[in-house]
Amino acid sequence: MLPSSSSSSTAKSNYSESSYSITFPENVFKVETITWSVKENQCILAYEPLGRLVFTSTQGMKEALTIVSDRSGCVQKLLKLNSNLEQSRLLLTIKCCDHSETMLGLCLLCSGDCSSATMTKKLSGALTKFSYERGAVFNLPIPEFESVQEVQTSAKSHIALLHNVGYTIAYEKGLERGKANQQRLIEKKKLSLVLDLDHTLLHTINDFEYRREHHKVTYFNDIYNNSPELQKHIHKFFMRGSYHFVKFRPRLESFLKRCSEIFELHVFTHGERAYADQIGKMLDSSKSLFADRILSRDECPDINTKTLSQVFPYSDKSVLVIDDKTDVWKDNVDNVIQIAPYDYFRRIFGVQLDVNNAPGNDADRKKNNSQQTPRTFKVIENTIDDYNDDDQLDIIYNLLEKVHLDYFNSPQDLSERDVKAILKEKKKDILKGAHIVFSGVIPLKQQPETHIDWKIATDLGAKCYTDITPNMTHLVARQKGTEKVKKAENMPGVHVVDLSWLHACLKYLKRQNEFDYFLGDHKLYPYSEAFSKSKPEIVQFQTACSEFMTLIQKESAFLRGLKAKEVEMDLGSDSDGSSSSDSDDSGSDMDF
Question: For helices 252-262 and 392-409, what crossing angle results, to 10°?
Answer without folding.
Answer: 10
